[in-house]
Amino acid sequence: MTAADLSGRCLCGQLTWTAPGPVLWAGHCHCESCRRASSAPVTSFFGVARDRVSWQGEARVFLSSPGNERGFCGTCGTQMFYRSERWPSEIHLYAVSLDDPSQFTPEAHFHYAERVAWMRIEDDLPKCDGSAEG
User: Fold this and answer.
1) Distance CA 86, CA 67 (A)
2) What are the DSSP calls for 18-82, one per residue?
3) What's the pLDDT score for residue 91?
4) How far is the C-alpha of 111 from the C-alpha of 134, rounded, in Å?
5) What angle do CA 15, 20, 21 make, to 5 degrees?
6) How high is the pLDDT of residue 1?
7) 8 - beta bridge partners?
8) What is the spatial distance between Cα 6 and Cα 21, in angstroms, rounded to a whole number?
9) Residues 6+ apart with CB under 8 A from 93
10) Surface-to-core class of residue 56, CB atoms within 10 Å of its CB (0-12 exposed, 13-18 middle, 19+ buried)
């Protein structure tokens, strides 16, 4: 992903965001927590500096585990972000919330060891058993 201006929104449009970049990383997460939060076999995220994201509308926040928050639209329920004490200067935005999804280029699979067995992954991206940091 480039450092171009990024923007996104929820399904109903009540919660929107903009960020100038740069994108710090981009990838697919297979962890159980992300799968359950999104009701999908994999979620695609990218990280940007937390203080560079501007929001319009108010996100609701769910403490999904100690030190980990998931933000969503209180009107339509769309998952919008993940924040963690582990990465205090980052926010992880859902790639599918992008206004222009072609701006997302995944670099790796994370928590690949937790993937669902029935989903075939046939790309050449690196497959990390945990997060990028191990």
Assistant:
1) 8
2) EE-----EEEEE--HHHHHHHTSS-EEEEEEEGGG-EEES-EEEEEEETTEEEEEETTT--EEEE
3) 98
4) 9
5) 110
6) 45
7) 17, 98
8) 7
9) 6, 8, 17, 19, 45, 46, 47, 48, 53, 80, 81
10) exposed
CA distance 43 to 104: 13
Mean pLDDT of 67-87: 96
Paired with 94 in beta bridges are: 45
Give the residue among 33, 133, 42 at the shortest CA–CA distance from 95: 42
Q: Output the six-digit token pair for 40.
A: 């999908």
> What's the Rg (C-alpha) of the chain?
14
Q: Which pLDDT belongs to residue 130?
A: 85
pLDDT score at 133: 58
